[in-house]
Design goal:
The protein is of the alpha/beta class. The protein has nine helices and eight strands.
Length: 218
């Protein structure tokens, strides 16, 4: 199957209200263009260098999402154009995004990345630390950010019960945080190629699908 037929199949199977982020990391710009021509407009990248190169090479109505770990020294490169930073995992990173957004006269949409998986290697806020931070009111001092919701990853396992538990925990964290935000706090980004149908069952509003569209990484 071609990239365009795969993307059409994935999109047709998504319920209303669930957005598709086509994860194009490690795939060439031509593959992104094929998905674009099939109607896809939201693409996710995990490396700043690759993200900026594709931004330069591809149509400007693409919404680029940063989904990988973002180093503080790389924020300036993407601040002028990124649509959503999904992987915000610290107050320091939030403050830097806010100042770079102000420099570009922008308000940048962000998701707060939460760590619920069993692997310690995965990044993100610990749930209690995130709740404490949000309750502290510190976000009120960052006017060039708009917090749109949370993002997370389930444990990498074939045990569906473990994956479901992780997704349900992410949903409950989003519900606990919701009263602290306005109506823009509407996004729960969870679910990837292997587990996105289960993530949708558990309340995901945004799925990040790569290999099911583009094939295995080059």
């Amino acid at each position: 199957m071609s990239v365009s037929s795969k993307i059409i199949a994935v999109k047709q199977a998504l319920p209303a209200g669930v957005e598709l982020v086509a994860v194009s990391k490690f795939h060439p710009a031509e593959a992104v263009r094929e998905a674009y021509e099939a109607g896809q407009r939201i693409f996710g990248e995990s490396r700043v260098q690759e993200l900026t190169a594709k931004y330069e090479a591809l149509p400007k109505d693409i919404e680029w999402h940063m989904i990988g770990h973002l180093q503080t020294n790389k924020v300036r490169s993407i601040a002028p154009f990124v649509s959503l930073i999904q992987s915000v995992d610290s107050e320091r990173l939030l403050r830097l995004i806010d100042s770079e957004a102000a420099r570009c006269s922008r308000v940048i949409d962000c998701l707060l990345e939460v760590h619920v998986a069993q692997e310690q290697s995965k990044s993100g806020w610990e749930p209690e630390a995130l709740l404490d931070f949000v309750r502290s009111g510190a976000l009120a001092t960052m006017p060039n950010l708009r917090i749109r919701g949370i993002m997370g990853m389930a444990t990498n396992t074939d045990d569906e019960d473990v994956v479901r538990r992780d997704f349900k925990q992410l949903l409950s964290i989003k519900e606990m945080l919701t009263p602290h935000f306005d109506s823009a706090f509407d996004t729960l980004s969870m679910g990837m190629s292997d587990d996105y149908p289960l993530a949708i069952e558990c309340g995901s509003t945004m799925v990040r699908v790569g290999s099911k569209i583009f094939g295995e990484r080059k």
